[in-house]
Design a protein that fits this description.
about 220 residues; 9 helices; about 80% helix; globular
Amino acid sequence: MAVSESSKEIWDKHGKDVLGARAYAAALGVALTWAVFLVAAGARTSYNMQYGPGLVLLTFIISIAGIFIFTKSTKPLVSLIGVSILSYFMGLSIGPVIAYYGATTVINAFVLTVFVTLGMAILGVLLPDVIIRAAGILFVGLLVLLVGYFGATLLSIFGIHAPLAGLDWLAVFIFSAYIWYDWARAMKLPKSLDNAIDASGALIVDIVNLFLTLLRIIGRNNE
């Protein structure tokens, strides 16, 4: 199967599980839906748990293991296991966070996340090259965001509470753009079942981070 140079630059993984364009899109949709379901299941499991460093460390390590599994595998079943591990343990990590907010706030954040995701997916299909060319800018923006949150955390240790509203809006922009980017990347990959599953793993990370950021913003506005 011929692969364009742009696809090689993004994620050059091949396999015998070649799909047509519609089947590939359907596989991506089903895999992403499954990932969302597992995030919800994980969050429900940990909803009444105490949020602490033990839970954070455990879920972070296992989530990274899930990412390693699906990115290294070329077998759809193994990749699905990796995405499933990632999704469930990400959900497990955010259950106590969701419990902090009221039901209306959570629902509003979820609905807004769905609409933003659909909008970015449409952009990923219609304008893939625009966002792919901006990959370097996105990465720099993500680094700035991480440094900003880390700095705010350090300041809070010394009793200085830095305003996070600006960082949260930057996070909404960055994670929304990453959904656009990862969807565009998915459209340029060789159309195989394994790549559809891998793409769903990248997207669920973007979507969960967007949801958490919107949850903070909406929750802050409802205070």
